[in-house]
Amino acid sequence: MTKRSLTTPRALAVVALTRINRQHAYSNLEVNQLLAQHPLTAPDRRLLTSLVYGTLQHRLTLQAWLAPRVHRRLDDWVQELLLVTLYQYHYLERVPNFAATNEAIEIAKTRGGAGVRKFVTGVLHAVLKTPFPDPTKLSDPVQRLSLAASLPEWLVRQLIEEYGLTQAEQVAASVNQPPHQSVRVNRAKTTPQAAIAALKEEGVTAKPSAVAGDGLVLEGGRLFETAAFKEGLVTVQDESAMLAAESMDLSAAQLVLDACSAPGGKTGQLAAALADHGGRVIALDIHAHKVRLVKQNLARLGLAGVVDTRQGDARKLDFLADASLDAALVDAPCSGLGLLRRKPEIRYQKQLADSHQLHQIQLAILNAVAPKIKKGGIMTYSTCTILKEENQETVAAFLASHPEFALEKTQTARAIKSDRAEKPLTILPSDFGSDGFFIATLKRID
C-alpha cells in the first residue's frame, strides 16, 4: 500500500473532518486549504467538497446508523472515516458501495495498520446489513426532526418554540439543501445587466436575484477565475446578507459607520452606495487580520478611497464625536445559525448558552453606537442567526433603555415580505433558499 491512498478525495475529506470536529475549524477554510495544497482533478475536487459538507450536514443521522455497530471509543480519524463512508452509502447514489468500502479499508490500513483495517472492515460490512435510521417511526417531533435533519435536539426545541412546528419542519428540511452561489454587483463599477453579460462571456451563467436588488444567482462556471471577479465587478455575498446595507437606502454625502465590518462585503456595499455622493464609511473591526481582509476586498472593488478602515472594539467608540454619524450598520457578532446551509458544523459547535452571551455583546455594541447617531439618523442592526434572543429580544432590550430611538419597518428594494406585521425583517433559510438573516431599522427621533 502506498501513501498515495492518503491524498485521494476520501482520505483528504477525513483529514478535513477531523480538523473541523477536533479544532472547531471552519469547513470552508479547511476545504479551500486542502484544494490549494493538492492538485486534484475537477471531479475529485467536487467529490472532496461533497464528502466534507455532506458528512457534516448529516452527521447526527450517520452517527445513529453507526452507533449500534461500535462499542468502544474510536480515534477521531477512524470515526470520520466510518462516517464519510456511511455518507457515501446512503447519500451518494452514483458511488457504488464496494468502491467506498474498498477505499475506506485502504485508508484504514495505510493510516492505522492491519488492526485498524480489520476493525473498519468488520464495522462497514455490519453497517451494510443494518437498515438506515427511519425518523418517521419516531413519535416525538423533536427526536424526529433531529434525526431527519441532523440538528441537535436543543436547536429543534428552540425552533419549534419560536416558530411553531410547521415552520421548524420547513427550516429543518431546507438547511441540508445545496446553497445558491450568489454575487453582488459592484455598482461603483458596473450594472447588473453588464455584469451578467461579462460573466456569460467567461462561461458563468447568472440571473438576477429574486431577493436582493444588486444580487445575481450563479448557475455554472468558475467565478474566481473570471476577470469580472478579479477586477471587482462582482463580489461573493449571500442574497440575504445584501439586504442589510440595501435597506439603509444611502444616497447622499453621509458619514456611515460599519461597526463590525469583516470580511468587508457589506462595507463595500455601503461604499458603493456613497461613492458618487461624496460620502464616507468608517469600517471597524476588532481583529487586525480581519481589518487587512477588509482592505483587500475594498482594493479589489476599487473602493478603498471611500473607506477609513481601523482596528477597534465597537463597544469603545471614543474616537467618534457624539451625533457625528448619519447612519451606522451594526452587523453584530452572533451564533451564525442562519448559515447552516453553508457552514453545517455550526449546529454542533453552538449551544443555547452562546446566544445568552452574544445577546449581551450585541446590546453593548448598540449602546455604544447609539449616541454617535445624529437626530433623524438610522442605526441598522443585523445578524445571520434566526434565534429571537439575538434578534427581536436584543432590539427590544435596546429600545427599553433608549427612548430616543424608534423601530421603523425595514424596507428592501424587492419589497421582501412587505406584508408582514413585524417591523424587523426575518428571513428563514426556508423562505428563499438564501441564508437566515435578521434586520431591524432603528431611527433616532430625539
Fold and architecture overview:
This protein is α/β, with parallel strands linked by helices and 446 residues long. It folds into 4 domains: 3-127, NusB-like (N-utilizing Substance Protein B Homolog, Chain A), CATH 1.10.940; 138-174, no CATH class; 181-236, Alpha-Beta Plaits; 242-444, Rossmann fold (3-Layer(aba) Sandwich). The protein is 47% helix and 15% strand. It is built from 18 helices and 12 strands. It has helices at residues 9-23, 27-37, 42-57, 59-66, 76-91, 97-112, 114-127, 141-149, 153-174, 192-201, 227-230, 242-248, 265-274, 288-301, 346-349, 352-369, 392-401, 429-432, and strands at 181-185, 205-208, 215-220, 234-236, 255-258, 280-285, 307-311, 325-331, 373-383, 405-408, 425-427, 437-444. The longest helix is centred in the middle third of the chain and has 22 residues, at 153-174. It is globular. The termini are far apart. The model has no long low-confidence stretch (mean pLDDT 95).
The CATH top-level class label of the largest domain: Alpha Beta
Question: What is the radius of gyration?
Answer: 24 Å
Strand content: 5-15%
Report the count of strand segments.
12
- What is the count of helical runs? 18
Q: What's the CATH architecture name of the largest domain?
A: 3-Layer(aba) Sandwich
- Element-by-element helix/strand order: HHHHHHHHHEHEEHEHEHEHEEHHEHEEHE
| Major β-sheet profile | 8 strands, mixed
Give me the CATH fold name of the largest domain. Rossmann fold
CA-to-CA gap between the ends?
74 Å
Shape: globular
Domain count: 4
Show unreliable segments. none
Q: Determine the structural class based on helices, strands and strand pairing.
A: alpha/beta
Give the mean pLDDT. Answer: 95
Name given to the CATH homologous superfamily of the largest domain: Vaccinia Virus protein VP39
Helix proportion range: 40-55%
